[in-house]
Amino acid sequence: MRADRLRGLVGPVFAPAARRRLARATGGGPAGRTSYGDDGMEPEGAARPGVTVDSWSPGRTRLLAAGVGVGGWLALGSPVGGLIVAGYTVLALRMWRDQRAGRREAVHREAALDLLAASVAELRAGGVGAVLLLPDDDLDRSVHAAQRLAASTGAPLADLLERLEAQSRAADRADAAAHAQAAGAQLTAVLLAALPVGGIGLGYLIGVDALRILLHTPTGVACACGAAVLQAAGLAWTRRLQRTGGRSAVGRSTGRFTARRRLRGLPLRRAVAPPSRRTPWLFGVVAGGAVFALLPSATGAVLGTGVAAGTVLVLRRMEPAATRAERERALADLPWAVDLIGTALRAGAPLDHAVLSVATALDGPLGTRLQRIGRSLRLGATAAEAWSHLADLPPARRLVTAVERSAANGSALAGALHRCADDLRADTAVRRQAGAQRAGVLIVLPLGLCFLPAFVLAGLVPVVLAVLGEVL
């Protein structure tokens, strides 16, 4: 029954990735690269050779890293060397997966925009222009929200999709510029991570075996482990700096493969469990115990108690990750929601009905907030009282101001909402470019605190010890 209903939803504009997922959901054969019929479905029993990025599981990564680590152990004659080689193998595979996933997502997004343009052209020509699933998750959610809003309010779907395509292409151009600005920081991190190898090679050029000191003496092993930890921390720090300048991670973390999850779990979505209140106390006890273990005395006990109390206080004041992710997702959906409300107003819907229709069309935390706003407006609340549900979103102040101004003097609200949505998108693009420029400057922090000390430990200290050993 469910399979027949899903097969009946196939439209004339349908992405290959969505076809494969729909074929798997309806029992249409194994997933893979193959040809499709005119109905958009995958033939029964089609084969899918090859390994994709999705199929490269973490278990396979760990297996390959273990194999490379054993090979490094045998080649270097040191278990520490094997562990370090295995760790760098994991890091290299993760970087490879991220690059492949980024290129794949870019291809999927371009294909989704092309499908969206084809659907708009079909709508303009008087056709149906049905778009069931798109390979890009952000566009897929936005298109389905536009379809639901058009069905409930009579808003022109072609105008909505055309505006979505134009704004998405403009956002992609801004993301490409920000990524180009952040490329220098990424290349700098890779070059700095290779500095210890250059130091060891320099030792061989002057005739000393720095690698033997590094892997077969207690001091060298300590230096090697410390350098590996520092480099891992530096790479993680640099990666975090790059994320602040690139595209928002909301779509990659919470909205990835939304269409697949929609088909996989239609009944209900499990609620995310709130963080435990005992977690700060646990970290506080661990931090205080570590201080007392380093200083087993009365002074250490006092310092450990202070460190434990400070750790608990800081962790309890930190914003939970779930709350931060919810707010970031609401901010990411805000410009499109404002566009949808403005289009519904142009279609003749009153403000409360437009807000409730958009809340129903959108899923996620912003839809919940808009539902509260619509209900408040329907119950007779003032504009300031109803729109106070967006008070914790600083970019939404411009939206609230426009609504309050319209309620006070009776001016048209639809045009102001479209201008507000454009301003929100422009501010987002500016923040991304500013973050990319900031990342290029802040790269000096992992450089001075992580990469250079790692170079001293793994590249200079073994060479100096080897030279002193030969001289003395």
UniProtKB/TrEMBL annotation:
Transmembrane recorded as keyword: yes
Parts of the chain that traverse the membrane: 63-93, 187-207, 213-237, 301-318, 441-468
Keywords: Cell membrane, Membrane, Transmembrane, Transmembrane helix
One cellular-component annotation, GO: plasma membrane
Domain of life according to the entry: Bacteria
Membrane topology: Multi-pass membrane protein
Record-given protein name: Type II secretion system protein GspF domain-containing protein
Places the protein is found: Cell membrane
Domain Type II secretion system protein GspF: from-to ranges: 338-458
Entry-linked Pfam families: T2SSF
Region (Disordered): 21-53
Species of the source: Catellatospora methionotrophica
